[in-house]
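A favour between colleagues. Tell me how you read the following sequence-structure pair.

===
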Amino acid sequence: MASGSTFLRLWLTDRARDTMLSFLPKEDLPSFRLACHDFSVRAAPLLFHETDITFRASTFTKPARMAALDRIAHHIQALTFSMAHTPDTFLPPLLDPVTGEEVTFTYEPYTQTTRDSAARLSNPTYGSWEMTDMLVKQYSPLFHAAANVPSFIRAFASFRNLRHLRISCPGQDAIQRYRRSVVDYALISVRIAVERSNLVLLDTLSLLSIHPGALLYLSPLMGFGALPNSVKRWKRITKLTIVMNSMPYTPRPPSDHLKLLNSYLHVFASSLTDFVFRWQGVKGLSPLSLDKEVCLQEKSPEMACPRRCHLALRPLRFEQLRKMEVENIVVDASQVSSFITAHRHTIREFNFEDTHLRNGNWDQALTPLTRISGSEKWKEKAEEVMDVPLLLSPVGVEEKRANELLVDYFNCKPRAFRPSIGAWQKAGAKGRELFCGTPEHMKKFLRSSVFSWR
Protein backbone atom coordinates (compact mmCIF):
# COMPACT_ATOMS: atom_id res chain seq x y z
CA MET A 1 0.00 0.00 0.00
CA ALA A 2 1.47 3.34 -1.02
CA SER A 3 1.89 6.02 1.62
CA GLY A 4 -0.13 9.23 1.51
CA SER A 5 2.79 11.31 0.27
CA THR A 6 3.58 8.83 -2.49
CA PHE A 7 -0.02 8.81 -3.70
CA LEU A 8 -0.13 12.61 -3.52
CA ARG A 9 2.93 12.91 -5.76
CA LEU A 10 1.37 10.43 -8.18
CA TRP A 11 -1.97 12.26 -8.11
CA LEU A 12 -0.38 15.63 -8.77
CA THR A 13 1.41 14.30 -11.86
CA ASP A 14 -0.95 15.16 -14.71
CA ARG A 15 -0.01 12.30 -17.01
CA ALA A 16 -0.18 9.64 -14.30
CA ARG A 17 -3.45 10.98 -12.93
CA ASP A 18 -5.11 11.17 -16.35
CA THR A 19 -3.94 7.65 -17.20
CA MET A 20 -5.36 6.27 -13.95
CA LEU A 21 -8.70 8.02 -14.46
CA SER A 22 -8.94 6.72 -18.03
CA PHE A 23 -8.96 3.14 -16.69
CA LEU A 24 -11.61 3.87 -14.09
CA PRO A 25 -15.06 2.60 -15.22
CA LYS A 26 -17.44 5.44 -15.94
CA GLU A 27 -20.10 4.00 -13.64
CA ASP A 28 -17.62 4.31 -10.74
CA LEU A 29 -16.76 7.95 -11.41
CA PRO A 30 -19.78 9.42 -9.53
CA SER A 31 -18.76 7.56 -6.37
CA PHE A 32 -15.13 8.47 -6.91
CA ARG A 33 -16.03 12.17 -7.03
CA LEU A 34 -17.63 11.92 -3.58
CA ALA A 35 -14.30 11.07 -1.92
CA CYS A 36 -12.99 14.63 -1.78
CA HIS A 37 -13.23 17.98 -3.54
CA ASP A 38 -10.08 17.51 -5.63
CA PHE A 39 -11.26 14.09 -6.85
CA SER A 40 -14.55 15.70 -7.85
CA VAL A 41 -12.82 18.44 -9.84
CA ARG A 42 -10.35 16.14 -11.58
CA ALA A 43 -12.89 13.46 -12.54
CA ALA A 44 -15.61 15.83 -13.76
CA PRO A 45 -14.19 16.34 -17.31
CA LEU A 46 -14.01 12.59 -17.86
CA LEU A 47 -17.44 11.89 -16.42
CA PHE A 48 -19.28 14.61 -18.34
CA HIS A 49 -17.28 14.47 -21.58
CA GLU A 50 -20.20 12.60 -23.21
CA THR A 51 -23.63 13.45 -21.84
CA ASP A 52 -27.09 12.20 -22.76
CA ILE A 53 -30.19 14.37 -22.31
CA THR A 54 -33.61 12.73 -22.60
CA PHE A 55 -36.01 15.61 -23.03
CA ARG A 56 -38.93 15.93 -20.62
CA ALA A 57 -41.22 18.75 -19.59
CA SER A 58 -38.84 20.04 -16.90
CA THR A 59 -35.49 19.37 -18.58
CA PHE A 60 -34.63 22.98 -19.42
CA THR A 61 -37.11 24.82 -17.18
CA LYS A 62 -36.56 23.49 -13.64
CA PRO A 63 -34.19 25.95 -11.88
CA ALA A 64 -32.31 23.25 -9.95
CA ARG A 65 -31.57 21.30 -13.14
CA MET A 66 -30.43 24.39 -14.99
CA ALA A 67 -28.13 25.33 -12.10
CA ALA A 68 -26.60 21.84 -12.17
CA LEU A 69 -26.23 22.04 -15.95
CA ASP A 70 -24.41 25.36 -15.69
CA ARG A 71 -21.86 23.75 -13.35
CA ILE A 72 -20.96 20.88 -15.70
CA ALA A 73 -21.81 22.24 -19.18
CA HIS A 74 -18.27 23.43 -19.91
CA HIS A 75 -17.05 19.80 -19.62
CA ILE A 76 -19.51 18.50 -22.25
CA GLN A 77 -17.93 17.88 -25.65
CA ALA A 78 -20.37 15.28 -27.02
CA LEU A 79 -24.08 15.78 -26.35
CA THR A 80 -26.89 13.36 -27.22
CA PHE A 81 -30.35 14.94 -27.30
CA SER A 82 -33.00 12.20 -27.26
CA MET A 83 -36.76 12.45 -27.52
CA ALA A 84 -38.66 9.36 -28.59
CA HIS A 85 -42.07 9.36 -30.26
CA THR A 86 -44.58 8.19 -27.65
CA PRO A 87 -48.32 8.66 -27.03
CA ASP A 88 -47.37 11.71 -24.95
CA THR A 89 -45.84 13.42 -27.98
CA PHE A 90 -48.97 13.01 -30.13
CA LEU A 91 -50.82 16.27 -30.76
CA PRO A 92 -54.60 16.02 -31.28
CA PRO A 93 -56.44 18.54 -33.46
CA LEU A 94 -56.87 21.96 -31.86
CA LEU A 95 -60.57 22.68 -31.30
CA ASP A 96 -62.41 25.93 -30.78
CA PRO A 97 -63.93 25.76 -27.25
CA VAL A 98 -67.16 27.45 -28.37
CA THR A 99 -67.98 25.98 -31.80
CA GLY A 100 -66.00 22.72 -31.57
CA GLU A 101 -64.51 23.28 -35.00
CA GLU A 102 -60.88 22.52 -35.72
CA VAL A 103 -58.62 25.56 -35.52
CA THR A 104 -55.54 26.05 -37.68
CA PHE A 105 -52.42 26.80 -35.67
CA THR A 106 -49.66 28.67 -37.51
CA TYR A 107 -46.53 28.33 -35.42
CA GLU A 108 -44.05 31.18 -35.10
CA PRO A 109 -41.28 30.54 -32.54
CA TYR A 110 -41.13 32.97 -29.64
CA THR A 111 -37.40 33.60 -29.22
CA GLN A 112 -37.13 36.55 -26.81
CA THR A 113 -34.78 35.60 -23.99
CA THR A 114 -35.60 38.49 -21.63
CA ARG A 115 -35.57 37.69 -17.93
CA ASP A 116 -38.08 40.43 -17.12
CA SER A 117 -41.26 38.55 -16.24
CA ALA A 118 -43.46 41.59 -16.83
CA ALA A 119 -42.10 42.07 -20.37
CA ARG A 120 -42.41 38.36 -21.08
CA LEU A 121 -46.03 38.19 -19.97
CA SER A 122 -46.99 41.31 -21.92
CA ASN A 123 -46.69 39.46 -25.26
CA PRO A 124 -48.63 36.31 -26.17
CA THR A 125 -46.39 33.28 -26.68
CA TYR A 126 -48.33 31.81 -29.60
CA GLY A 127 -49.34 34.84 -31.69
CA SER A 128 -52.55 35.89 -29.93
CA TRP A 129 -54.02 35.60 -26.48
CA GLU A 130 -56.92 33.49 -27.77
CA MET A 131 -54.57 30.98 -29.42
CA THR A 132 -52.30 30.94 -26.38
CA ASP A 133 -55.28 30.21 -24.10
CA MET A 134 -56.45 27.31 -26.29
CA LEU A 135 -52.98 25.77 -26.48
CA VAL A 136 -52.43 26.03 -22.72
CA LYS A 137 -55.76 24.32 -22.02
CA GLN A 138 -55.65 21.61 -24.70
CA TYR A 139 -51.97 20.67 -25.07
CA SER A 140 -49.78 18.98 -22.47
CA PRO A 141 -46.88 20.66 -20.59
CA LEU A 142 -44.48 18.63 -22.75
CA PHE A 143 -45.57 20.60 -25.82
CA HIS A 144 -45.03 23.95 -24.10
CA ALA A 145 -41.61 22.83 -22.88
CA ALA A 146 -40.63 21.77 -26.41
CA ALA A 147 -41.82 25.12 -27.85
CA ASN A 148 -40.02 27.12 -25.15
CA VAL A 149 -37.21 28.32 -27.41
CA PRO A 150 -35.64 30.71 -24.88
CA SER A 151 -35.01 27.84 -22.45
CA PHE A 152 -33.22 25.89 -25.20
CA ILE A 153 -31.10 28.93 -26.08
CA ARG A 154 -30.08 29.41 -22.44
CA ALA A 155 -29.15 25.74 -22.11
CA PHE A 156 -27.15 25.46 -25.34
CA ALA A 157 -25.34 28.73 -24.66
CA SER A 158 -23.61 27.00 -21.74
CA PHE A 159 -22.18 24.22 -23.97
CA ARG A 160 -19.25 26.38 -25.03
CA ASN A 161 -16.90 23.40 -25.59
CA LEU A 162 -19.40 21.27 -27.51
CA ARG A 163 -17.87 19.50 -30.50
CA HIS A 164 -20.33 16.72 -31.37
CA LEU A 165 -24.12 16.99 -31.29
CA ARG A 166 -26.26 13.86 -31.61
CA ILE A 167 -30.02 14.08 -32.11
CA SER A 168 -32.14 10.96 -31.73
CA CYS A 169 -35.94 10.76 -32.09
CA PRO A 170 -36.89 7.11 -32.71
CA GLY A 171 -40.22 5.37 -32.63
CA GLN A 172 -42.40 7.31 -35.08
CA ASP A 173 -45.43 5.40 -36.30
CA ALA A 174 -45.71 5.37 -40.10
CA ILE A 175 -49.33 6.47 -39.78
CA GLN A 176 -48.21 9.72 -38.13
CA ARG A 177 -45.55 10.46 -40.75
CA TYR A 178 -47.32 13.57 -42.07
CA ARG A 179 -48.57 14.85 -38.69
CA ARG A 180 -46.59 17.27 -36.58
CA SER A 181 -45.81 16.08 -33.06
CA VAL A 182 -44.15 17.49 -29.94
CA VAL A 183 -40.86 16.03 -31.19
CA ASP A 184 -40.94 18.32 -34.22
CA TYR A 185 -41.36 21.41 -32.04
CA ALA A 186 -38.40 20.27 -29.93
CA LEU A 187 -36.29 19.91 -33.10
CA ILE A 188 -37.17 23.48 -34.10
CA SER A 189 -36.05 24.69 -30.68
CA VAL A 190 -32.78 22.73 -30.87
CA ARG A 191 -31.97 24.18 -34.30
CA ILE A 192 -32.67 27.76 -33.22
CA ALA A 193 -30.64 27.27 -30.05
CA VAL A 194 -27.63 26.03 -32.01
CA GLU A 195 -27.88 28.92 -34.46
CA ARG A 196 -28.06 31.56 -31.73
CA SER A 197 -25.41 30.14 -29.41
CA ASN A 198 -21.70 30.71 -29.78
CA LEU A 199 -20.70 27.06 -30.37
CA VAL A 200 -17.47 27.74 -32.21
CA LEU A 201 -16.07 24.21 -31.70
CA LEU A 202 -19.12 22.33 -32.97
CA ASP A 203 -18.09 20.50 -36.16
CA THR A 204 -19.80 17.09 -35.97
CA LEU A 205 -23.52 16.37 -36.30
CA SER A 206 -25.21 12.97 -36.00
CA LEU A 207 -28.92 12.51 -36.71
CA LEU A 208 -29.68 9.04 -35.38
CA SER A 209 -32.94 7.23 -36.03
CA ILE A 210 -34.80 10.30 -37.23
CA HIS A 211 -38.08 10.38 -39.14
CA PRO A 212 -38.07 11.77 -42.71
CA GLY A 213 -40.02 14.90 -41.78
CA ALA A 214 -37.43 15.90 -39.17
CA LEU A 215 -35.28 17.53 -41.86
CA LEU A 216 -38.01 20.10 -42.50
CA TYR A 217 -37.60 21.37 -38.92
CA LEU A 218 -33.81 21.04 -38.83
CA SER A 219 -33.20 22.81 -42.12
CA PRO A 220 -31.94 26.40 -41.78
CA LEU A 221 -33.11 27.20 -45.31
CA MET A 222 -36.85 26.93 -44.74
CA GLY A 223 -37.09 26.16 -41.05
CA PHE A 224 -39.28 27.98 -38.58
CA GLY A 225 -37.54 30.96 -37.04
CA ALA A 226 -34.57 30.82 -39.43
CA LEU A 227 -32.41 33.93 -39.83
CA PRO A 228 -30.37 35.08 -42.86
CA ASN A 229 -27.16 33.91 -41.15
CA SER A 230 -28.56 30.54 -40.02
CA VAL A 231 -26.95 28.66 -42.90
CA LYS A 232 -23.55 30.10 -42.01
CA ARG A 233 -23.65 28.40 -38.60
CA TRP A 234 -24.36 24.96 -40.08
CA LYS A 235 -21.68 25.32 -42.73
CA ARG A 236 -19.14 24.82 -39.93
CA ILE A 237 -20.20 21.16 -39.74
CA THR A 238 -17.53 18.99 -41.38
CA LYS A 239 -18.72 15.53 -40.28
CA LEU A 240 -22.31 14.48 -40.81
CA THR A 241 -24.05 11.18 -40.01
CA ILE A 242 -27.71 10.53 -40.85
CA VAL A 243 -29.66 7.38 -39.94
CA MET A 244 -33.18 7.89 -41.31
CA ASN A 245 -36.31 5.78 -41.16
CA SER A 246 -37.05 4.61 -44.67
CA MET A 247 -40.26 4.51 -46.63
CA PRO A 248 -41.14 1.42 -48.67
CA TYR A 249 -39.40 1.63 -52.04
CA THR A 250 -41.75 1.54 -55.04
CA PRO A 251 -41.28 2.56 -58.69
CA ARG A 252 -43.14 5.81 -57.90
CA PRO A 253 -42.60 6.49 -54.17
CA PRO A 254 -43.78 9.63 -52.34
CA SER A 255 -41.06 12.12 -53.09
CA ASP A 256 -41.52 14.91 -50.53
CA HIS A 257 -39.11 13.47 -47.97
CA LEU A 258 -36.52 12.83 -50.71
CA LYS A 259 -36.68 16.46 -51.83
CA LEU A 260 -36.27 17.57 -48.23
CA LEU A 261 -33.22 15.32 -47.92
CA ASN A 262 -31.66 16.74 -51.08
CA SER A 263 -32.26 20.31 -49.95
CA TYR A 264 -30.86 19.60 -46.47
CA LEU A 265 -27.63 18.06 -47.80
CA HIS A 266 -27.01 21.11 -49.98
CA VAL A 267 -26.53 23.13 -46.79
CA PHE A 268 -23.32 21.16 -46.08
CA ALA A 269 -22.10 20.80 -49.67
CA SER A 270 -19.21 23.23 -49.28
CA SER A 271 -17.92 22.06 -45.89
CA LEU A 272 -18.39 18.30 -45.42
CA THR A 273 -15.30 16.10 -45.28
CA ASP A 274 -16.96 12.96 -43.81
CA PHE A 275 -20.48 11.81 -44.66
CA VAL A 276 -22.33 8.69 -43.51
CA PHE A 277 -25.91 7.87 -44.47
CA ARG A 278 -28.03 4.80 -43.75
CA TRP A 279 -31.67 3.97 -44.36
CA GLN A 280 -33.19 2.27 -41.33
CA GLY A 281 -35.61 -0.44 -42.42
CA VAL A 282 -36.18 -1.29 -46.08
CA LYS A 283 -33.72 -0.14 -48.73
CA GLY A 284 -34.12 3.39 -50.05
CA LEU A 285 -32.74 5.54 -52.85
CA SER A 286 -29.21 6.88 -52.70
CA PRO A 287 -29.17 10.43 -51.22
CA LEU A 288 -26.18 11.27 -53.42
CA SER A 289 -27.98 10.93 -56.76
CA LEU A 290 -31.57 11.99 -56.14
CA ASP A 291 -31.42 14.46 -59.03
CA LYS A 292 -31.14 11.49 -61.42
CA GLU A 293 -34.17 9.60 -60.09
CA VAL A 294 -37.13 9.45 -62.47
CA CYS A 295 -39.65 9.62 -59.62
CA LEU A 296 -38.29 13.06 -58.69
CA GLN A 297 -38.20 14.40 -62.23
CA GLU A 298 -41.82 13.74 -63.15
CA LYS A 299 -45.03 14.81 -61.49
CA SER A 300 -46.15 11.94 -59.30
CA PRO A 301 -49.80 11.45 -58.31
CA GLU A 302 -48.60 9.81 -55.07
CA MET A 303 -46.93 12.92 -53.71
CA ALA A 304 -48.11 13.91 -50.25
CA CYS A 305 -48.33 17.54 -51.42
CA PRO A 306 -49.12 17.33 -55.16
CA ARG A 307 -49.50 21.12 -55.51
CA ARG A 308 -45.85 21.78 -54.65
CA CYS A 309 -43.60 23.38 -57.22
CA HIS A 310 -41.95 20.80 -59.51
CA LEU A 311 -38.50 22.23 -59.90
CA ALA A 312 -35.61 20.01 -60.93
CA LEU A 313 -33.36 19.00 -58.06
CA ARG A 314 -29.84 20.37 -58.05
CA PRO A 315 -27.11 17.71 -58.20
CA LEU A 316 -25.05 17.30 -55.04
CA ARG A 317 -21.38 18.22 -55.26
CA PHE A 318 -19.35 18.10 -52.05
CA GLU A 319 -16.34 20.34 -52.50
CA GLN A 320 -14.19 18.90 -49.71
CA LEU A 321 -15.54 15.37 -49.25
CA ARG A 322 -12.83 12.86 -48.32
CA LYS A 323 -14.77 9.94 -46.85
CA MET A 324 -18.26 8.74 -47.71
CA GLU A 325 -20.33 5.75 -46.60
CA VAL A 326 -23.87 4.83 -47.57
CA GLU A 327 -25.76 1.76 -46.41
CA ASN A 328 -28.98 -0.07 -47.26
CA ILE A 329 -29.60 1.73 -50.55
CA VAL A 330 -30.79 0.99 -54.10
CA VAL A 331 -28.72 2.65 -56.82
CA ASP A 332 -27.70 2.33 -60.48
CA ALA A 333 -24.15 1.56 -61.56
CA SER A 334 -24.17 4.74 -63.63
CA GLN A 335 -25.03 6.81 -60.55
CA VAL A 336 -22.10 5.34 -58.59
CA SER A 337 -19.80 5.98 -61.54
CA SER A 338 -20.94 9.60 -61.86
CA PHE A 339 -20.43 10.22 -58.15
CA ILE A 340 -16.86 8.87 -58.20
CA THR A 341 -16.02 10.93 -61.28
CA ALA A 342 -17.43 14.16 -59.81
CA HIS A 343 -15.48 13.78 -56.54
CA ARG A 344 -12.28 12.20 -57.87
CA HIS A 345 -10.11 15.16 -56.83
CA THR A 346 -11.00 15.08 -53.12
CA ILE A 347 -12.42 11.71 -52.07
CA ARG A 348 -10.10 9.14 -50.52
CA GLU A 349 -12.47 6.46 -49.30
CA PHE A 350 -16.02 5.48 -50.11
CA ASN A 351 -18.02 2.53 -48.77
CA PHE A 352 -21.18 1.01 -50.19
CA GLU A 353 -22.60 -1.24 -47.47
CA ASP A 354 -25.56 -3.50 -48.21
CA THR A 355 -26.05 -1.81 -51.58
CA HIS A 356 -28.21 -3.22 -54.37
CA LEU A 357 -27.53 -2.26 -58.00
CA ARG A 358 -30.75 -1.89 -59.98
CA ASN A 359 -28.93 -1.61 -63.31
CA GLY A 360 -25.40 -2.62 -64.26
CA ASN A 361 -22.72 -4.33 -62.19
CA TRP A 362 -19.87 -3.30 -59.94
CA ASP A 363 -17.31 -3.38 -62.76
CA GLN A 364 -19.34 -0.75 -64.57
CA ALA A 365 -19.89 1.23 -61.38
CA LEU A 366 -16.15 1.37 -60.65
CA THR A 367 -15.01 2.12 -64.19
CA PRO A 368 -13.79 5.62 -63.18
CA LEU A 369 -11.13 4.01 -60.98
CA THR A 370 -9.43 2.67 -64.10
CA ARG A 371 -9.40 6.10 -65.71
CA ILE A 372 -8.17 7.77 -62.52
CA SER A 373 -5.36 5.27 -61.83
CA GLY A 374 -4.48 4.74 -65.49
CA SER A 375 -4.60 0.94 -65.15
CA GLU A 376 -6.64 -1.90 -63.72
CA LYS A 377 -4.23 -2.79 -60.92
CA TRP A 378 -6.84 -1.79 -58.35
CA LYS A 379 -8.78 -4.92 -59.34
CA GLU A 380 -5.97 -7.08 -58.01
CA LYS A 381 -7.09 -6.13 -54.51
CA ALA A 382 -10.64 -7.22 -55.15
CA GLU A 383 -12.04 -9.66 -52.65
CA GLU A 384 -15.34 -11.41 -52.10
CA VAL A 385 -17.05 -10.67 -48.82
CA MET A 386 -19.82 -12.91 -47.61
CA ASP A 387 -21.41 -13.97 -44.34
CA VAL A 388 -20.00 -17.29 -43.07
CA PRO A 389 -22.02 -18.86 -40.23
CA LEU A 390 -20.41 -20.57 -37.27
CA LEU A 391 -22.07 -23.95 -36.76
CA LEU A 392 -21.44 -26.06 -33.66
CA SER A 393 -22.44 -29.71 -33.74
CA PRO A 394 -24.06 -31.28 -30.65
CA VAL A 395 -22.54 -34.46 -29.30
CA GLY A 396 -24.73 -37.53 -29.73
CA VAL A 397 -26.62 -36.35 -32.83
CA GLU A 398 -26.41 -38.57 -35.87
CA GLU A 399 -24.40 -37.23 -38.82
CA LYS A 400 -27.39 -37.61 -41.14
CA ARG A 401 -29.55 -35.43 -38.89
CA ALA A 402 -26.79 -32.82 -38.59
CA ASN A 403 -26.47 -32.65 -42.38
CA GLU A 404 -30.23 -32.15 -42.71
CA LEU A 405 -30.10 -29.22 -40.29
CA LEU A 406 -27.19 -27.73 -42.23
CA VAL A 407 -29.05 -27.99 -45.55
CA ASP A 408 -32.17 -26.41 -44.03
CA TYR A 409 -30.11 -23.51 -42.70
CA PHE A 410 -28.57 -22.65 -46.07
CA ASN A 411 -31.90 -23.06 -47.89
CA CYS A 412 -33.62 -20.51 -45.64
CA LYS A 413 -30.73 -18.01 -45.46
CA PRO A 414 -29.15 -17.10 -48.82
CA ARG A 415 -25.58 -15.94 -48.88
CA ALA A 416 -24.90 -12.24 -49.31
CA PHE A 417 -22.34 -11.29 -51.93
CA ARG A 418 -20.94 -7.88 -52.48
CA PRO A 419 -17.62 -6.88 -54.01
CA SER A 420 -14.95 -4.94 -52.13
CA ILE A 421 -12.20 -2.93 -53.79
CA GLY A 422 -9.41 -2.01 -51.39
CA ALA A 423 -9.69 1.38 -49.70
CA TRP A 424 -11.70 2.80 -52.59
CA GLN A 425 -14.83 0.72 -52.39
CA LYS A 426 -16.03 -1.48 -49.58
CA ALA A 427 -19.37 -3.09 -50.15
CA GLY A 428 -19.14 -6.02 -47.75
CA ALA A 429 -21.82 -6.44 -45.12
CA LYS A 430 -20.84 -5.52 -41.61
CA GLY A 431 -20.15 -8.46 -39.33
CA ARG A 432 -23.42 -9.70 -37.94
CA GLU A 433 -23.94 -12.15 -35.16
CA LEU A 434 -25.48 -14.85 -37.37
CA PHE A 435 -25.90 -17.68 -35.00
CA CYS A 436 -26.38 -16.35 -31.52
CA GLY A 437 -26.38 -12.56 -31.51
CA THR A 438 -23.69 -11.78 -28.92
CA PRO A 439 -21.00 -13.73 -26.99
CA GLU A 440 -22.99 -13.42 -23.75
CA HIS A 441 -26.11 -14.71 -25.47
CA MET A 442 -24.12 -17.67 -26.85
CA LYS A 443 -22.83 -18.61 -23.39
CA LYS A 444 -26.37 -18.65 -21.99
CA PHE A 445 -27.56 -20.64 -24.99
CA LEU A 446 -24.90 -23.34 -24.61
CA ARG A 447 -25.33 -23.60 -20.84
CA SER A 448 -29.10 -24.03 -21.14
CA SER A 449 -28.94 -26.56 -24.00
CA VAL A 450 -29.98 -30.18 -23.47
CA PHE A 451 -26.97 -31.28 -25.57
CA SER A 452 -23.29 -31.10 -24.80
CA TRP A 453 -21.50 -29.02 -27.41
CA ARG A 454 -18.02 -29.26 -28.81
